[in-house]
Amino acid sequence: MDGKIKVVIADNHALFREMLRLTMRPEGSIKIVGEAANWQQTIDVISDLKPDIVLLDSTMPEMDGIEALPAIREKSLKTKALMMKANNNEASIFKALKGGAKGYLSKDVSISDLIKAIKAVHTGELWVERKLMARFFDREAIADSKEEGRAGRPKKVLTPREKEVLCILTTGCTNKEIAQALFISEKTVKSHLNSIFKKLNVTRRLQAILEAIKQGLS
Question: Which of 78, 144, 155, 183 falls between 20 and 30 A from 22, CA-CA?
């Protein structure tokens, strides 16, 4: 074993697969071990190679990428799916994560962010591209405002700072890294996380992110 993260690219566009393969080649910690252009090839290559990560196009021919997640787990329990899609919305993100995907990216993501996502998912973190989470939080804020107006009293909603902490959390950052990004202390980060967990009625980071997405859906 060379210690590298083994990755399979599953996408029906040959040019996109080639682009990813070439741009990630200089990254010493990641190795592209296989490619697939359709659903059957995806299952075959995952079954044969048991990669650590599969970069999975959510609109693969023959079967929706999200619907394919159970079959991927059946062929290789160690393989984590990182979904990629050209057009994204909150519903598709939530559906993918609930279906078992460990990350979600738009196809116009930078190569540096893609590499960060692969590494984070490989270590067991959940990754949702920051701009997608930001869009969700904007939508959630509007929904919160409408709900407060109808009910006449505020809900237990996240503060703007708590939303910032949760957004950065999705990138796999540690408490120390969150503190550095927001120019606050680690103690303050822990306090924000405790408040977030309490408001969302969860006990783990992954649960907090999923619950936040779920509560923003109509």
Answer: 78
Domain hosting 155: range is 132-215
- Kindly report, residue by residue over 2-50, the tens digit of the pLDDT: 789 999 999 999 999 999 999 998 888 999 999 999 888 999 999 999 9
One domain for residues 24 and 98:
yes
Element (H, E) at 176: helix 175-182
* Among 108, 128, 148, residue at a domain's last position: 128
Number of Cα atoms under 13 Å in the Cβ half of residue 93: 30
Q: What percent of the chain has pLDDT above 70?
A: 78
Q: Are residues 172 and 71 located together in one domain of the fold?
A: no
Residues 79 and 52: their CA atoms lie apart, in Å, by: 5
Amino acid letter, residue 54: V
Q: Which residues pair with 30 in a beta bridge?
A: 5
Instruction: Say if residue 64 is in the same domain as residue 19.
Output: yes
Q: What is the secondary structure of 101-165 as a DSSP string? A: -SEEEETT--HHHHHHHHHHHHTT--EE-HHHHHHHHHHHHHHHHHHHHHHSS------HHHHHH
Indicate the helix (H) or strand (E) that contains 9. Answer: strand 5-10
* Residue 132 and residue 159 in contact, taking contact as beta carbons nearer than 8 Å: no
Residue 35 pLDDT: 95
Q: Are 104 and 31 contained in the same domain? A: yes
What's the pLDDT at 90? 64
CB-CB contact of 109 with 132 (8 Å)? no
